[in-house]
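Dear Dr. L.,

I hope this message finds you well. Following up on our conversation about the binding site, I have prepared a predicted three-dimensional model of the protein together with S-adenosylmethionine. For your records, I am including the exact sequence and ligand specification that went into the calculation, followed by the structure tokens. Please feel free to forward this to your student if that is useful.
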Amino acid sequence: MEQYKSVPVRLPDKTPVDILTIQRRFNQGFKREDIFLDVSPDACLINVREVDMRELRATVGELIEEHDTTGAKMVLREALQAVESIRSYGLKGRKRLFVGYNSERKVRQRQDKEKRRGRHYYANDHAFPRQSSEPPAEYLNRIVCGDSSEVLKRLPDNCVDMVFTSPPYNFGLEYGESPDDYQWEKYYEKLFSVFDECIRVLKFGGRIAVNVQPLFSDYIPSHHVISNFFMRRKLVWKGEIMWEKNNYNCKYTAWGSWKSPSSPYLKYTWEFIEVFCKGSLKAAGNAAEADITADEFKQWVNARWSVAPERNMREYGHPAMFPVELATRVLKLFSFRGAFVLDPFAGVGTTAIAAKNSGRRYLNIDVSRDYCDAAKKRLAETLL
Ligand SMILES: C[S@@+](CC[C@H](N)C(=O)[O-])C[C@H]1O[C@@H](n2cnc3c(N)ncnc32)[C@H](O)[C@@H]1O
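The resulting structure of the complex is given below.
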């Protein structure tokens, strides 16, 4: 940043002038760090950082009175005029700031706005308790078969560090024994009953990350519906990751709308991960337990992740898995090693595999016995 704003002071052509005396007297009237005259054999500059203009005008007026030569009076008037002519400056009390005022103004305005409007206004009046509890030993590193809205009731409040899940889509996919063709209102009612339990068991500062694909064919923006739910429950929206699957095989038009604005069908090659925090944006944890590398961090905080979809769904017998790579990134970016990680719609245990591989503890729940058995088999085969 420049230290001073420097402007030339015009010197009289023909009138003789004792410029060194003017310089000395002018500089005696002010603090050098605020303003000073700088004279060289062929130029005169006024350097100004900040000044009270009323003081400057008064002092220059006195100096003009004091000097009896026309040349000296002209130089002093020119010096004042040079400062008056600087059009860009900030204000601090009675002073004009001629350098650094932009950054100062930006910060001050931002802080003022934050104070007036508040950050994440929708979540500030939460009543989440800060004390956390230990996860019960019988639920550590377990695959539990059951309905999550029931199973989670057996867990104490505030014992989970991180939830990562992908809810059933209600797309009519065949999910083992669970009916996947509820009416949408009933579907959300059921989903939110599970999420309410997730919020209750989550620690203060814990995170919930939900992988969700909008219900394109039913024109339901489920990522917004779900985000709206968490905001109403006073969780803070930490951000959104776009999981780019690079899946260009998906259907993109019906013949009825081909090449016509009448109703073009939009095509998506990505899904979302919505991330919410309970009570605080900061998660408590020991820095030594952060296991993300510098390169991973630099790459993953760019919220568009290109990760190939799971290729072995047929082998595991599940129609809607996410890949281990996706779960691993989420866990390493948002939780510390040793964290207790919950997936309430666990399918064939992808979150558990990522947790086991990265030194975290897990509880995976799925309503389907077949999926739970497949998850246990997968975990047993996972080498550390
Ligand atoms: C999108 S899949 C999750 C797949 C998982 N991410 C994976 O990679 O294997 C959703 C899962 O939720 C399960 N599910 C549906 N309703 C449930 C409930 N009430 N409680 C627990 N699991 C449920 C389904 O059986 C299905 O496996």
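In brief: The CA atoms of residues 32 and 48 lie 9 Å apart.

With kind regards,
A. P.
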